[in-house]
Amino acid sequence: MPSLPPDLPRLRTLETWLAYTLDEVRATIARAEQREREVQQGRERRPPPPEWLLEQGLNRDSPPVQVHVGGCWNSGKRSKGVTRDDAVRALAAGVRACSACRPDSALGFLES
């Protein structure tokens, strides 16, 4: 244990400083707990990932280039979530199925 000063004025000063420091630590802990709660709420409220993805071409006007199963590691940043019907329509229109996740097999789509 550290050596404490023997006189009352210095002991009171030390007590004041310790109380101030403890208040600061508690406030910092409260802010950290609030951040953790917000992160957890964000995780809980995050919408589910889409079941099917349609990967767009290089610019806004280009047609889609691939259909993916939702969560496919091979889907690009230009992918957007679509419904099952949209994914089937895209495959029927000639959009290529991803060779990694095989959405055509998952959708039961057979080319005619």
Would you tell me the overall average pLDDT? Answer: 91
Please compute the radius of gyration using only Cα atoms: 29 Å
Task: Note the total helix count.
Answer: 3
Element order, helices and strands?
HEEEHEH
Distance between the termini: 84 Å
Strand numbers in spatial order across the main sheet: 3-1-2-4
Percent of residues in beta strands: 5-15%
Structural class: alpha+beta
Kindly describe this structure.
It is a single chain. This protein is an alpha+beta fold and 112 residues long. It has two domains: 1-46; 52-107, no CATH class. 46% of the residues lie in helices and 12% in strands. It is built from three helices and four strands, in the order αβββαβα. It has helices spanning 8-45, 84-92, 103-107; strands at residues 52-55, 66-69, 79-82, 96-97.
Concise structural overview:
With 112 residues, the chain is an alpha+beta fold.
